[in-house]
Each structure stands twice: as C-alpha cells, then as structure tokens.
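quick one, 710 residues, struct below
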Amino acid sequence: MLRDLTLEYVYDSSENSIVEKLFLPLLEHSVLYRRGVGYFTSGWLSLNIKGIRSLIERNGKAELITSPHLLAEDFEAMQRGEQAKTDETLYEALMHELDSLQQENTPSAHETLALLAWLVADGLLDIKFAIPRNKKGDFHDKFAVFMDEAGDRVAIHGSYNDSIHANYNGESFSVYCSWVEGQAPYVVKHDERFSRLSAGENDFFLMYEMPGLVRAKLVQIMEHSERPYDISTTLAAPKDDELQIRIPSHIRLHGYQEEAIQEWEKAGQRGLFSMATGTGKTITSLAAAAKVYKVKRKISLIISVPFKHLVEQWDGEAREFGFMPVLSTNRDWLFEANSLIDDYNHGFEDVLCFIMTHQSNADQNKFLRLVKKIRDKESILFIGDEAHYLGASYLRNSLLPEIQMRIGLSATPERWRDPGGTQVVTDYFENEVISFGLEKAIEQGFLTPYEFTPHYVEMGEDDYQEYKKLSIRIMQHFQAAKKDASRRQAANILAAQRANLLNRSEAKIETFFSVLHNHVSEIGRENFKHTIVYCPEGKHREILRRIANLGLRVQEIVADTSNMERKVILQAFDRGDIQVIVAMKCLDEGVNVPATKRAYFLASTSNPRQFIQRRGRILRRTFNKEQAFIHDFIMIPPSLVRDESSAPETILKREFARFVEFYLCAANRVSIHQPAYGVLERYRLGYLLSLKPEEIYATLSGELEEDENK
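---
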C-alpha cells in the first residue's frame, strides 16, 4: 500500500535518483498511474520498466497526457483544427519515435519498444495528446497521481519530464499524500485536473487520441515479441460487475423491463418498446445494450434522439452503464468519432457509443459515412428515441438496413395522420415487443395516480362566429384539394388559425387565473410549488407576468432557453426555489421533471402525442409524491347559440378527444363523468364518452389543424 512507503516532501535530482527513490516505489505500490507531462519519450519506459511491470501485474493501468514533438507549421495546423493534417501530423511525429527505436539495435531499445507495443495493445497504457488552442506555448505541465487498491493517492508536481535526458538535469518534485492532514485538497485538485484534461473539458487545450495507424504499427511490433509482463490474472475473463459495460448496481430492472429485453432477443434483436412516458424506456434499452456487450464483449452503440437537450440527458444515463459517448453537440465530434472507429476496426477499442440528434444521424455526408466504415456491422446496435420521428421523409436515411440490432422507443409509436411514415417506422423496427401503457403503469405503482379536473370555458360570440367562417373556408379548400393538391397547404394554414381561436381565448386565460388564484389561496402561497403551466404561443409573457404578480416565483422555459439555463431552472424547480414553470412545446419530449405535482393545460394541439407525453412527465414518481393533479381548460360553444352548422360538433370532438384521454385513467373518473355528459348531450354527443380518443379523431378527418409531424 502507498501508506507503507516513507515519502519525502520534496525530491531533488541533485540529491536523489528520482526514478529509483520516487517513481519505482510508487509504481510498485499502485494500481493506477495518471501522468500529465510536457515531454514523454519511450526511453523513460526503459528506466521504469520494473515499476511498470509491477503496476500491470497488480491489475493496474497507466494513463498519460503529453505533448507530441511537432514542427512549427504542424503545430499551427493542429491548433487551427485541420483534422486531416492532425492525423498525418501525429502519425509522423509518433512514427519517428518508433522508427528511431527500431533502428537502434540494442537489447534495451527492443525491450522498450516491445513493452510500449504490448501496453498499448492490451489497453493498459492510454496515451492522449494535448495541444493548446492558442498559437503560443505548448502543454508544459508536469504532475502525476498514483492510486492503490485502498483508494489512497499520492500526487507529485514538479519540473521533471519523462525522458532519459531529464535525469541529467537539476529537477525536483513536491509530494502530497491523501492521508496526510492538510494535503488531501492538493491531491484531489491534481486528480481533477487530469480528469478534466482527459475528458476534453479544459478550454485551454485540444485533446487528441493516438492515431489508428500508429496503433496498427504497434500491433505489428507486438506480434514479433513476447509479452514482457505477466497478466495471467489481469486479462482473465471479468465477472459481470467488472465488465466495462454493465447494468449499474443501483438499478434493478422491473419485470416488464426484463420481459421487454427477452422478447426483443426472441424477435431477433429488433423491436419497438411501446412504453408509457415515465416507465423507463431509456434504462430498458441501455440494459439491452449491456446484455449485448456481455455476450459479444464488444458493441458499437448508436443512439439517435430528436432534440439537442436529449443528447445531454442520454449522455448522463449512458455513462452510468459505462459508456463514454461521443456527442453530436460537441465541436470536434466527427474527428473524435472517426478516430474511435479506426481504433475499433483495429481491435484497440471494444466499445463505441455515439449519441446523435436525428438530423445529425441522417446526414449522408457526415455521420452515416462514418458508420459505414465500421467493419463489424453485427456489433452495431441502433436505438431510436422517440422513434416516431424517424418516419419523416428527411430522416429515413438514418434507418440503415445493414444494422441488424434495432430498438425503437416511443410512448406513441404511430405518427399523427401519417400512415406512410408510421409504416416506415414499423417496417424498420418490426415487432412491438412490449406494450406497457399508462393504465397498467399506474395500477402496478410505476407512475403516480392523478386527479383530472376539466374546466369548461364558453367561447365568446365573436370567436365563435370567426370559427364558423374559418371552418367553411377550410372545407372549401379541402374539397378543392381533391383536384389541386396545392390547396391543402392553404387549408392547413387556416386550420391552424382556427385552432388558435381556442388556444388563445381570452375567456380561457381569465378562467385559468380565477382557478389559479383559488388554488393559491387554498394551498398557501409558499406551499404552492412544483407546478407547470402549458400556455399558448404568443401569450406566455402575459401569463408569466400575471403569475409573478400573484407573488409566486415563476420562470419560463421556451424554445431559445439554453440547455444550461434549462438545467439550472429545473434543478431550482425540483428544490422548490422556483414554484411555477411556464412552458410551451419545449417540455414535451424526453425532459425529466418528476417533481411536478400540478399542471394546467391552456393549450394543446390535436396531436394526441403531445398531451400524452405531457401527462407522462407529470406522473413520474419521486419522493413524497402520492398524487398528481391535472387541470385542462376545455372550450365549448356558447350556451345561448343554437345553429345547425357542424361547428359545435367539431369544437366538442376536438376538445373531448383530449378529455377522454385524460378521463380514462383518472382516479376521479366517476365524479367527472356526469358533468361532461351533460355538456355533450346539449348537442347529442354524449356517446363520445364511450369511444376511445383515436375513434373520436377518426370522425374528424380533414377537420383538424395540421400539426407539424416530424
């Protein structure tokens, strides 16, 4: 153990051999060696070969960040981010070092070269290269962290480079031990510095992996030499909990999740997971990926998501399973992906993970070209999150037929009013291997029970008359579209305008504030928390201001809210520091807000996927949440108006399709039935309560606004 060593506070090469007195003892007692150093040559390995062997034979690993020897023009090219030049530059710089060793006909040089080749090939030495982003200076740091089996660490910081020549200079190191009072913060800081550098999170440096061609050269060297260390235990077949990719110990799959994976495997590792929002589609699909890795001992995982903020959300989940994803939202992701695929093809990596937006994933000239470079196509698993989007014509390129393992995730796999796009999705993912709906999820305790309160709001006379006029024009355009398809676009525009009469109704907004004021009075201003208001576009500023005037802490999340702002707002909302969030469409897909206990629906499209997913966000379980409350503001025709047009029927069918969706699984279903029936029976539409939502929508073909279905 490192604690057993007697270490000085400072080591000076003029008094001691730093290799003999410091590096070798530390390496011999460590299982992890992390080194950030300005200059590294393989000659340093020859001086420390005894310590390196001991580290490896203790199941250890070495991680190195250094700076390559570059000509000035090459250095500048890499700083400019010229990717082709970067590959060539690193290759030539590193190959020069290897060639020099090969040409040096001495036992020491051959031993050093063999050690380097085997360490890299076995994945026991990870080398990365740091290049400053600015055009001056270089990576000139010199620090290291050693860790033993007990987790004790030693950090050293000084002027010593990892080269033979450094032993002839006047060099020194300061030493810090994690178990010595007052020194732990220094150790932690150096370890964190290394982690940030390695992950590319240091804004001062660009980080580069070892080029695949250099690794290939090392393989050739390795094949002509014996492994210079004993790893009979190091490379023994790992137990499940030692695998790089595994289901985290704190996650226990539910029965329906295990069933989904088993059925997916029986179906030839293809299928749709049709699971209610909040029931763990993400976890289930990543668990399937972990099982693929357990069998194949390799995997190339491609995760495609509809929005940028979901890239970050999936990144966090995937890392829990051991993946180190490349994200399409990062600046240098294409270069990083290309380099990793080269390593994967040469056998230096057994895990690839890419998290892309659907749009990036469908780019023929970028990512799809890289995917086709992966030689072992049978190791690729494609996960399509919110898979219904992938049926859009401009995204179908991403559904590569050569990928055999496929998982589609969606609470609502069918595309709204797009049977052709739905067929594309079902043809690609094939079977629906699990259908775990909302009612079942609530019954089995995986989602929170909810009360649903409809608030009926009569349209104003002017809005109602405008609605009727628009309805007549819409029907005229739809009739004309049978002969002239261009007329359908005009009909869709008018249908959206008509929908806005319902969504932006002043009567609805005033009713909402009357209800909200009563709820705040009943619950108490400070206790009124974890509330979301879904409001119509163009009205959110007014609603935000008026909620704030009630003395509530309120914040908005809109389309241009950055991912970082969104994260901060949701964390404050979870703590209760922000009481109310005003949102439009940006919380519809994949956003986790389990703290939500109360939601007010002031606007919805007629696309059922939108309000089904919104409800799913609200019903996610969390600590101390026994029940959720959903309030919907349902527009109905003016009670004094009696006419024979189809307008009242159209309005009520559009609004009550959503009502029925919420009503069917509500805990208070019985008590809200009679008032709803009374409203509908004014127009002899009470039978709608016995229909399913999709059956109501089927009677409205051509009468709904054209919701964007991408």
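The first helix runs from residue 18 to 28.
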